[in-house]
């Protein structure tokens, strides 16, 4: 399993979440990723390093450019973890439905 601590730590920063949202539209260079932010290119590069270290993005070498894109494995690891939580939540709701249905049946059986 992926290091989810590093993943969620990387996701804790709104700038990094914005970068990921931009990369959801496709590959982008550092300069393209830096455009909407009022920060230096080295600051954006630091954010990109954190995202790379967390396994959420990968870089490709294209001549002198190093475009980034989402890393499928990192995103899938988050999705699998969330799927596990969704399943547990569904099971909890199913048990609650059973309890409530039993309470309704019990009330109907106790007519006065």
Structure report:
The chain has 112 residues and is mostly helical. The chain has one domain (4-109): Arc Repressor Mutant, subunit A (Orthogonal Bundle), CATH 1.10.10.10. Helix content is 66%, strand content 5%. It is built from 5 helices and 2 strands. It has helices spanning 4-11, 14-23, 30-34, 41-53, 72-109, and strands at 57-59, 68-70. Strands 1-2 form a two-stranded antiparallel ribbon. β1 and β2 form a beta hairpin. The longest helix has 38 residues, at 72-109. The mean pLDDT is 90.
Roughly what percent helix?
55-70%
Q: What can be said about the biggest beta sheet?
A: 2 strands, antiparallel
Number of strands: 2
Radius of gyration: 22 Å
Number of helices: 5
Order of helices and strands: HHHHEEH
CATH H-level superfamily title: Winged helix-like DNA-binding domain superfamily/Winged helix DNA-binding domain
Low-confidence stretches: none
Outline of the structure:
The chain is mainly alpha-helical and 112 residues long. It contains 5 helices and 2 strands, in the order H-H-H-H-E-E-H.
């Amino acid at each position: 399993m992926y290091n989810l601590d590093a993943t969620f730590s990387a996701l804790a920063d709104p700038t990094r979440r914005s970068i990921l949202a931009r990369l959801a539209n496709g590959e982008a260079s550092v300069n393209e990723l830096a455009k909407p932010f009022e920060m230096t290119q080295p600051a954006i590069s630091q954010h990109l390093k954190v995202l790379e270290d967390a396994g959420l993005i990968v870089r490709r070498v294209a001549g002198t450019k190093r475009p980034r894109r989402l890393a499928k494995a990192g995103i899938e690891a988050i999705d699998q973890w969330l799927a596990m939580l969704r399943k547990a939540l569904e099971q909890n709701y199913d048990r609650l439905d059973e309890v409530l249905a039993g309470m309704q049946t019990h009330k109907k059986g106790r007519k006065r």
